[in-house]
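Dear Dr. H.,

I hope your travels went smoothly. While you were away I took the liberty of generating a structure for the chain from your last submission, since the lab meeting agenda had it listed for discussion. I wanted you to have the full record in hand beforehand rather than looking at slides cold. The sequence, exactly as received, is reproduced here:
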Amino acid sequence: MTEVLNQTVNKLVLDVAGAAPQGIMLINSEGTIVWCNPAILRLFGYGMDELVGADVEVLLPAELRAAHAKHRSVFFDNPSTRSMGRGNIFVAQRSDGSEVEVEVGLGFTQTDDSGLAIAFVTDMTRHQSIVHQLSKLTRSLETKVQARTSQLREKTRLAEAANNQKTRFIAGVSHEIRTPMNGIVGAAELLRNTDLDATQMQLVNALSEASDHLLNLINNVLDLSKFEAKAMQANSEVFSLRELLESTLRNFRPLASSANVKMSYHDNIVLPLQLKGDPVKIRQILSNMISNAIKFSDPEKEENFVHISALRDLDGIFHFIVQDNGIGMSREGMLKAFRPYAQAHGALATPIGGTGLGLVLSRELAVLMGGELFIESQLGVGTTATLSISLQEDGQLSEYAADLSNYNFTFLGSHGSELQRIDEQLGLVGIKLRKVYDEKEILDLVKSSSNRDVFLMHDCPAFDHERWRHELGRISTQSKFVKFSSNSNFSADHAVARHVECNPIQWSQLFEVLEADFSEGLNGNVRNISLEDEEIMRVVAVCAERPLMICEDNQLSQDILAAQLQANGLNYQMFSNGKDALECWAPGEYSCLLTDLQMPQMDGLSLLKEIRNKEHKLNLPEMPAILMTAGDIQEFDRSGFGGFCGTIRKPAKFEYLRSELAGIILKNC
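The corresponding predicted structure, in token form, is as follows:
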């Protein structure tokens, strides 16, 4: 029974092997082919009687037979299943002498006497033909890809060159437009300060608004072209976020007031700590957010508001949120809002103008600084814009950070929501506020006060400031009296003390009040001079002894700047180029240098470099210097590019120039 079963299995194995498409041979240790299947016969062109009993080397070219006999002997000494030649493709020989490429796998089976090698032979002719064709096709494709890549690189290079040329052209046009714009803005500003009737004032205001709009358009187009040319970069410098927020909000109060929009502010940021980031771009984004909120107020609503929040989360991320109850945007409008030159409401659909670039640029600026800009809006309800950005702490106190622990703060008079807001803001910087409402207690406190006592009052009708003006001035000439106001337009009728805005608290004003000595003003006639006016008076005094050195080659710009300086009582000396200015420079002769960048004979950078070299050789303190240019201001680092203390982009309102002068001259002189 077992013998019959074995015979059946053996026959089955031979039938399977015989029907296999792959060639199979059995070879003994002498190299004799003892059996092969029909696939071998078809592959090599032999008959069964011709191949069985022949040496296996007959299937190889003559030059390979001797070496194969040695390899065969090694195999039988240590037989194992493996690829012949480790998987290489061999050249075999057919009966007619033609060659064929084959792949051979080896196996071994033990027999009674010794053993047999099992050779599995695969015809690789078709396979190799396909491989050769694929290789040829691959080389052809690689050649085409290389050629195409080279073409794309050349097209990219040409496109980038064209884009850079466009950016330079736009920058050049911007520079050329800004120079006459400087004259227009300056002339309108000078006209506004003259005696004008209502019609003339209306025309001057229209001129100013049109020039501001044109200037904003120029800035947006220039910035967009820089993004397209990948030329926009984020700077990192130390700045005070509190001062940035104060000045930005202060700039928009007149616009909000004229649009009948109530603007409020809230933050949870413990300052004044210095931060590192790009204040110019942050201000640009915030300005766009606030401007849009005011511009898109709803005239159909009884009350329009814009609420600004500055929040810092647990991860240290700063979130600047501008919320309004204006006309809002539909879902389709929000999709358009971030497309260049597109407007959410359509330029022809509403009387509100714009280029459709503000939000696009703001988002690009946010991403450039590693932040994000989000917009949520509902048509007819309002819009919420959020700028989220990570800012690193510098660890140093702001220049306005007085030692508040040495002062005693007392709030006099009325109480309510404004007092709560003031108390919260003072608490953020560690001020513990004492509240006193009783009149007798107020008088007793003032009588026993010193120059370390600060009495706070709020500008509201519930508190009789006129009555207390005489009482406080009569009782104490040492204490400091500060009146908080929700409005930047202070009334002389309520002049009791120095004014500080409280929505939000203008910390720069408060710290300057604490450092100032103004007790004389409260004894008798109360002074009602703003801190800004006091600053310019101090600058006037400095310039009376040491004039400003002005370098400007454009005659129109010279005339406008001269008129502005004269109107503010500032002494100066004007030069048309850097060479003439350098020849007149002498140690300690000038209080500050204001220079244009591009000038004949010697430009502004070269002038300052020469002055700095002279100062260093003579071991002199550096004269403060401000760069005035109609070029791209973002290319200059405010931390001191080329030795400049500050930069001013033309055209600039004189109030901004005055602020820069005051900050730099009073700090350095």
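Two observations you may find useful: Residues 61 and 97 are 8 Å apart (CA to CA). The first strand starts at residue 23 and ends at 27.

With kind regards,
E. W.
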